[in-house]
Amino acid sequence: MAPQQFDVIVLGMGPGGEVAAGQLLAAGKRVAVVERELIGGECAYWACIPSKTLLRPPEAHGEVGRAAGVEGARLDWAATRDYRDYMIRHLDDSDQISGYEKSGATVIKGAARLTGPGTVEVDGQQLTAADIVIATGSDAVIPPIEGLEQVPVWTNREATTLTEIPDRVVMIGGSAVGVELGLFLRRYGAQVTILERSARLLSREDPRVGELTGQYLRGDGVDVRTDATARRVRRDGADTVVELNGGGEVCCDVVVVGTGRAPRTAELGLDAVGVTPGEKGEISVDEHCRAADGVWALGDVTAVMPFTHVAMYQARVVADNILGTPRAARYDGIPRVVFADPEIAAVGLTSAQAQEQGLSVAAAEIDLAQTLARPWTYETEPRGHLGVLADRDRRVLLGAWAIGPQAGEWIHTAALAVREQIPIDRLLDQIAQFPTYNEGYLKALQRLDLQSTS
Questions:
Q1: Residue 202 above 90 pLDDT?
Q2: DSSP label at 157?
Q3: CA-angle at 418, arms to 416 and 419, nearest 5°
Q4: 449: left (phi over 0), alpha (psi -120 to 50) or beta
Q5: What per-residue confidence (pLDDT) applies to 246?
């Protein structure tokens, strides 16, 4: 059988693959999209969409309890679960398949393998194209803990598609996944213990962020244990017992792992196109997201930044380059958000990263409730902090973090300032709507000591 010929073949139809395919189809390209599971990918069915859907009801429930003069809200797990199922399309991508076919794409379900420059095989079908876009995503990493294979273990997939809330949960990992899923399960009644091997939660952010996050989670009744590592797991009757390094153990019904993700590249046949993956299976790309002649990669497989919004951005870069408009990707000023309650958001460098680069920095932090009016109009016991980090020499913002209601929405003020290197003097002249949380940036910037130390 002769190979089917296309202009572009997109391998993996998560958000990044979808953006690339959509832009290429709109430009009139002949596009084949290949997906081994569901069109929409991890984000749509097992990660971003279901997790945020599940987090919202307990967040709203808490808002009722903190707002003045409101009472009577209750959580309904069955209703939440039903809406979650609606949001994840009941794990059915039939509409997505027909939608792409109507747009002119050839949709092929199956596992793809590169067989040479410009050639792909999917379950015996041969495809050829001038350009191949790899957007196959990543898989949850299962940590090598003795006995883990003998007990009930969930990744994000099982945790976000669960039907019943377990009584007791041990979360291994205090990253964004651990914080979000741990909070969701706790607020629906589970007894939750988070084990984080570092000295604080969210260890890649500024220490203050992890410290405050731990305080808020403990306030919700989550047992947060830092400097804690699971040594071994065993069954003891109906219990799953997690033994800890240094002694002690925790009993639970299910272990949920949130210990990172690995690029999904092992079976792609990258050697056939001259691409050698890195130690973790990642595909190295240049500033145009090109991995080799006619081969492009985007999203988690590049291991640049494992965020859906980064995959979608890289997809736009790839599509523009394929369509003849040279475009380079840049990764400064990209926000990072943990959808806890309150939300946790950050952008740019941390203090440690800035010091490693030898920069002369100034930092400031404000307690939102002590500084702004908006927190008091929002809730009777206001919560939240905001921190900024500036380069003294260049007088620009290097980074920022915020913990407060909907911080993921107003972190973008700092993100734009970091990305476009807006001078702090210009930022100090901004006029923010009163009363808003966004006013906090002006207050924090006013506290910066920008006098040179040289």
A1: yes
A2: H
A3: 65
A4: beta
A5: 87
Mean pLDDT of 254-279: 97
pLDDT, tens digit (0-9, with 9 covering 90-100), for 307-336: 999 999 999 999 999 999 999 999 999 999
Domain 4-40+93-139+262-322 has CATH 3.50.50.60: yes
Query: In the chain, what are the domain boundaries?
Result: 4-40+93-139+262-322, 148-259, 336-446
Structure token digits, residue 454: 């040289």
Residue 450: Cβ within 10 Å count: 15
Phi, psi of 194 (to 5 degrees): -105, 125
pLDDT of 452 > 90? The answer is no
Residue 453 confidence (pLDDT) above 90: no
Model confidence pLDDT, tens digit, residues 379-389: 999 999 999 99
CB 296 within 8 Å of CB 281: no
Distance CA 230, CA 218 (A): 20
Concatenated DSSP letters of 158-209: HHHS-SS--SEEEEE--SHHHHHHHHHHHHTT-EEEEEESSSSSSTTS-HHH
Output the CA torsion sign for 296, 299, 304, 308. Answer: positive
Give pLDDT tens digits for 21-50: 999 999 999 999 999 999 999 999 999 999
Report the CATH architecture of 336-446. 2-Layer Sandwich (3.30)
CA count, 13 A, side-chain hemisphere, 276: 1
* Residue 144, burial from CB neighbour count under 10 angstroms (0-12, 13-18, 19+): exposed
Mean pLDDT confidence for 299-303: 98
Contact (Cβ atoms closer than 8 angstroms) between residue 188 and residue 59: no
Percent of the chain with pLDDT over 70: 99
What is the Cα 203 distance to its own chain's centre? 15
Q: Which fold has domain 148-259?
A: FAD/NAD(P)-binding domain (3.50.50)
309-312 contacts, C-beta under 8 A, 24 or more apart: 309/334, 309/335, 310/334, 311/14, 311/15, 311/16, 311/19, 311/135, 312/15, 312/16, 312/19
